[in-house]
Specification:
Layout: H1 3-10, H2 20-35, H3 41-51
């Protein structure tokens, strides 16, 4: 993980009050954002509509 990102996470007071599972989820999400592994709201809605046949 990026050293600056790790320092930013560890220096936030609320971080220590999260469960390990919540911390892991946030870390994965931040890494996805850093790596560009994101999709738009429109893409999410289109996939949702396909799954529920709207």
């Amino acid at each position: 993980m990026d050293k600056q990102l790790k320092n930013n996470i560890e220096n936030i007071d609320w971080w220590n009050h999260l469960s390990p599972l919540e911390q892991e989820g946030i870390q994965k999400g931040l890494l996805d954002m850093e790596d560009g592994n994101t999709i738009s709201h429109e893409e999410v809605m289109n996939q949702l509509k396909k799954r529920v046949c709207l």
